[in-house]
Amino acid sequence: MRKQVTDSVLLVRPSVFRKNEQTAVNNFFQKDIENLSGEDVNREAQGEFDALVNELKSHGILVTVIQDDEKSESPDSIFPNNIVSFHQDGKIIFYPMFAPNRRKEHLLDFEGPLKQNGYYVKLIKDLSESENNRQYLEGTGALVLDRTHRIAYCALSERADRAMLDEYCKTENYTPVVFHAFQTVHGERRPIYHTNVVLAVGEDFAILCPTAIDNASERDALLKKLKETGKEIIEINENQLENFAANCLQVRNKYGNRFIVLSDKALSSLTLYQTAQLEKHGKIIHQDLHVIETCGGGSVRHMMAEVFLPKEKVMNA
């Protein structure tokens, strides 16, 4: 049975977090915090990270934390969902990254800590060679997966190549639903760098900013597919998108209880009605991620890589 929601997530604690100049060229959410030094930014981000991990654990969610040891030299290692994904069939997939200074994140040991926690790894699939051809597909940032219905939603951008998407869907048995998403930057409509800023898909709901999809046919096709798969659609506006209201994740804890994880900034942007809609699908867990969101241009969803790997004892049963 294919699961859409897991009770286990992996996070990477940063060692050199900062605003990444290489990703800022097409991630328009990134901003400077002028009153903080580089050391302050990294320390504040580590504090926000630790608080999120503690909050998740306090609700019974299984958390694997990897400490970035600085060898990756990546300011964005805190966002592992772009670099790697973990699947029910025992597969780990590594993805090709747009920014050269993110590519060393492949050197982080993801497999070891997961095996120590009892997870079974059958196969490692590495797509990163496509970086040599300037073809990128940044994990579950570029791909919003409906695992139950085998649908891969993807907003095409410099971080999400169409040929890479089609090949991924062919080999992993997904049907692509493709669209283009935009945000207004200095009065111009510019592509949004990751799909998971526009769209979140849970078991029975989806959060979507439809006005970010300028093409009416693409927007209608996306809405139709979400409705066909039984999702309650929670629509947000572009201001809420800018506040990372769609960059959230539904998880379960080890007792089977459902939760929606998002940032304080995202939650405060929602109306009371939208919040009530969301609470039907799980208790809300929220955390202050001001520095991570401002400098990194990503939020909770980027920070959590879902672990769907089977347990060793299940495989050996």
UniProtKB/TrEMBL annotation:
- InterPro entries with a match to the protein in the record: Amdntrnsf_FN0238
Which Pfam families does this entry report, sorted A to Z? DDAH_eukar (PF19420)
- Name-wise, this protein is Amidinotransferase
Q: Which domain of life is it from?
A: Bacteria
- Could you tell me which SUPFAM superfamilies the record lists for this protein? Pentein
